[in-house]
Amino acid sequence: MRGERSLLRIGGTLIGLASRLLPGEIRDERSREWTAELPAILRDPDTRLTAHRVARMLGYAAGAVWGSALAAGGARGRLTAVMAVVVGLFTAEVLTLAVRGVLGAANAPGDWVNYCLIVGGLLYLAELRRVLARWIRQAAKPMEGVRDAVLDYGASFFPSWLLSLLLRAVGAVSSDLPGQAGAPGPPAPVPLLPAASAEQAIGLARDTAGRFYRTRLRPGYQIAEVDEFVARIEATLATGTRPGQAVTAADVQAATFGTRLGGYDEQVVDEALDYYAGALARLAPSPDSMTGPDTDSTDMTR
Questions:
Q1: Is 297 contained in some domain?
Q2: What is the pLDDT of residue 148?
Q3: Element at 261 (helix H, strand E)
Q4: In the chain, N or C terminus with fewer CB closer than 10 Å?
Q5: Is residue 108 classed exposed, middle or buried when 0-12, 13-18 and 19+ CB atoms within 10 A define those classes?
Q6: How many domains does the chain have?
């Protein structure tokens, strides 16, 4: 492909920027993974159009920058950043229209459109002031109230289907919006209970895994790798796995997956794997259970 080296250089520059935004302990690993994906996407034989391959490769690199830039904050922080941009742009547009209405009314007093623009701007500002005042009064700190007001007011601009897509794009759930119960996020690992059964562990872990979803604008874990590993975990929890195929809590904590644009959201999968590790540790046999009453002491020393 003509210009392939230049395109890869551009993609590499974006990946370098993305990796610099990550913590030092994972920076090099993620940089190598993402850089290795660039030529694979650019030379993908299943995509015939060159322009399509170029767009996918650059989109992957740009998604890495987007995801890394937002990774430092939590899901609610990412959602607040997006909502702040939405509310800021909408406020600027309303103020611009209101100013145009004032100037238009001065030049053409009989034009009712100008007065509608002025009234609309005043109503918008009054509603924004009301929301800010309400959330600041309820919050422990003023800035927390401002953030809640931005989330609340920004969410009112989106239809439900579009808001759902936005929440998925930033890794948030509806419970991250102030005043909404929404669907809870992945549950945190519970304390280890010695009486827990395999059926209970599988049920709880499946509730977590059922919340996996795919990223859209940033890299995510390879879906096939995650699904295969989760299947092995559930087989281990069901006690129907051969000894050589059993997965331990340590295996879950050390697991790594490849990344690709459109894969599983990394944060959600990591939280689910933490829960799976807890379920496996909860089911792990205690040292006392490994020795029966008939075990010969001589055999134990071999």
A1: no
A2: 86
A3: strand 259-261
A4: C
A5: exposed
A6: 3
